[in-house]
Design brief:
This protein has about 325 residues and is an alpha/beta fold. It is built from 8 helices and 15 strands.
Length: about 325
């Protein structure tokens, strides 16, 4: 009889979020017999073709890596079957698995999802939660089914979101929480752990991020703009324009004091203070990056840019 201590695991994952889960599995009594990740793609500012973080971690551990362009590929499905996995583990893989792929592991597949389901199904659950000003998120271990993030839930763990945390802060912590929760969940799979169906009527979706998500509308309330800035950090970032110049905003503080000014008007630009009028309240910019340059403190930025009180920022050039 195969016990949880000797389960043959095939792992599906791609970004940094998935690495702690892979590391935890590699250190466990389970046997990781294969790692599936997205094909090498251009990444970073130089757009150089590089391996995913999961591929890098898997190769360092001496594990076999599969990188199918599509999980529908018959050659890939044959390779997956040849691994004879007991269980598939998915963490931010990046492709929707087919019915055929889901049936190959004896115990099926489970997913480490970075939200409290059924809220924030989809590709960007952490970012969308922060953008929407949620005060709590978490991780759900769920059964993978054909429908997107709709499978029954096996375990959940909750985590508060502080008002100044970025998506990067939250996601990094959730990655560790998810890895621990997964290891605590696996032993029950062979024994028939309870699986709780999701309430589909309460589902919300977290679509993939695009650069257009980063356009700051200064008519929004200050809190909403602040949440957008921290929610889109570290990518694709919230940005604003002064003329043709694009400025990426990394850190901010909402100020609730009312002000009578056209939204987007710079109210103060002196020393360490860069204050902008919003539709309600004000946004204090703390860290800013001129496009093509490095992030800067406000004092450093103002020393080299002619933004003054009365200048108006816009959503587009």
């Amino acid at each position: 009889m195969v016990t949880h201590d000797s389960l043959r695991i095939v792992f599906f994952g791609t970004p940094e979020f998935a690495v702690p889960t892979l590391d935890a599995l590699l250190k466990s009594a389970c046997e990781v017999v294969g790692v599936v990740t997205q094909p090498d793609r251009p990444r970073g500012r130089g757009h150089r073709t590089t391996a995913s973080p999961v591929k890098t971690a898997a190769l360092a551990a001496g594990k076999a890596v599969l990188q199918p362009p599509s999980v529908k590929d018959t050659a890939f499905l044959s390779e997956l079957s040849a691994l004879v996995p007991d269980l598939g583990i998915v963490a931010a893989y990046g492709q929707i698995l087919t019915e055929r792929a889901l049936t190959i592991p004896r115990l099926g597949m489970i997913n480490v999802h970075a939200s409290i389901l059924p809220r924030y199904r989809g590709a960007a659950p952490v970012h969308r939660a922060v953008i929407n000003g949620e005060t709590e998120t978490g991780v759900t271990i769920m059964r993978v089914v054909k429908a997107l993030d709709a499978g029954p839930m096996l375990a959940t763990a909750r985590r508060p979101i502080a008002t100044d945390e970025t998506s990067d802060d939250v996601e990094r912590d959730l990655a560790e929480i998810g890895a621990r929760l997964l290891l605590a969940t696996i032993p029950g799979l062979s024994e028939g752990v309870a699986e709780v169906s999701q309430d589909d009527s309460a589902a919300t979706y977290a679509p993939r991020l695009t650069k257009d998500d980063g356009r700051i509308d200064w008519t929004w309330p200050a809190e909403r703009i602040h949440n957008l800035i921290r929610g889109l950090h570290p990518w694709p970032h919230a940005a604003t324009f002064f003329g043709s110049q694009r400025f990426i905003l990394h850190r901010s503080k909402p100020v609730r004091d009312p002000v009578r000014a056209v939204p987007g008007t710079i109210l103060e630009a002196l020393g360490d203070r860069l204050l902008v009028a919003a539709g309600a309240g004000q946004v204090e910019i703390v860290e800013i990056q001129p496009e093509g340059k490095r992030p800067m403190s406000v004092r450093e930025f103002l020393a080299g840019h002619a933004l003054t009180a009365g200048s108006i920022l816009h959503a587009s050039p």
